[in-house]
Amino acid sequence: MKVLITGVDGYSGWPLALHLLNRGHDVSGIDNLITRKRVAEVGSHSATPIASMTRRIQAVHKHLGKTLRFYRGDLCRWEFVRQVVRKERPDAIVHLGEQRSAPYSMIDVHHAVETQVQNVTSTLHILYAIREESPKTHLVKMGTMGEYGTPNIDIAEGFFEVEYLGRKDRVPFPRQASSWYHWSKVFDTGDVMLANRLWGTAATDVMQGVIYGTRTPDIDRPEFLTRFDFDEVWGTALNRFCVQAVLGLPLTPYGKGRQRRGFIALEDSMQSLTLAVENPASQGEYRVFNQFDESYSVTDLAQMVVTATREDLHHEAEIHNSYNPRVEAEEHYYNPHHENLLKLGYRHSRTLRQSLTEILTDLEKFRSRLESHREVVMPRMDFRTPDNRKPLHIPG
Ligand code: USQ
Fold this sequence. Notes:
This protein has 13 helices and twelve strands. It is α/β, with parallel strands linked by helices. The chain has a single domain (2-377), classed as Rossmann fold. It has a seven-stranded parallel beta sheet, sandwiched between helices. The chain has a three-stranded mixed beta sheet with strand order 9-10-12. A two-stranded antiparallel sheet has the order 6-7. Helix 1 links the parallel strand 1 and strand 2. Helix 6 packs parallel to helix 7 (180-199). The radius of gyration is 20 Å and the shape is globular. The relative contact order is 0.15. Bound molecules: sulfoquinovose-uridine-C1,5'-diphosphate. Residues 100-102, 144-146, 209-210, 236-237, 240, 252-254, 259, 261-262, 298, 326, 328, 379 line the site of sulfoquinovose-uridine-C1,5'-diphosphate (USQ).
């Protein structure tokens, strides 16, 4: 199949490109390389030393004997998006090319607007490019489990039956996101559903949980490493806890630490996106996949990292809850459903505990890159105050 990946330079875009190439697909990719700049903007860098896009493409050619067609450009430029889709006319577009950090979107009005304008614009451009240049293309759109928020009822997989004042309907599950970033994904979902209703665009909307891991079988040489972020803006809680443990800093669950989220290993995320691509939605179909395997509270994560640090690195890590810089429920019910991928043959292949050994071992290898950016690891922002850069007090 011909597959176009937007955000091909990103944490999951790059391993997905390698995975699809290794499975014999014809792969092209778009990126404006902005994540590299944005991470530098907050004074950080990837823990893993990632190759430039040029070196990545050369390595694909040299080691896999394949060509990855790369288009450097901004998805907010309509003519650029249209020209690439016209040239490629892919069977599938996997749209990963969006600003993906909730904290980044909460820094101030400029970052909130930048996130929403860029994310919503890119999705609309892709929808229109499919309509005008390649109407049979199947869109696999990266959304987030965070669109649903944390309601006090089970979370359905996209749609659910509701009875209200004696009448019944099947309607989209309510969205209650808790950052400007997560709301940008809600708006995307609305736009993808509308394109599907207006034009019959085939679409899979992937509600993805937090992805973790440094390895997949396709990342088997230094030039193929994918990025791993650990600062408070770009690093997820799990990444940050692992880096804190390696550096001997306290692990920082925010607030009560009972916030629960769904998690999926990078390798399994590649498996599910591949299943979505290889088993496309039909013309006129809009489907939703809740994509995660295990659900944990932030404290569960921290405790698992403490155990893995003891067993794998042979030193003790400590947990010091910091106050919560985010506005979110710190204790809540969480039971999302996920059946649609299982029906396509998805099988959970990596547990968090297995991945933790790999992550900690890999981080040890790149310790000097963590040491040199030690100051970005502990939380410093507070999104509850107008001046969100107020320093936090971390005990110990
Ligand atoms: N948290 C801590 N300590 C930290 C950092 C975060 O306790 O040092 C807490 C946060 O307060 C939050 C939870 O951990 O309650 C998750 O935060 P996160 O930074 O790990 O992840 P999140 O902001 O939810 O975003 C990440 C990805 C995003 C993706 C989303 C999936 O950055 O691209 O959409 O996970 S989901 O969480 O299901 O919405």
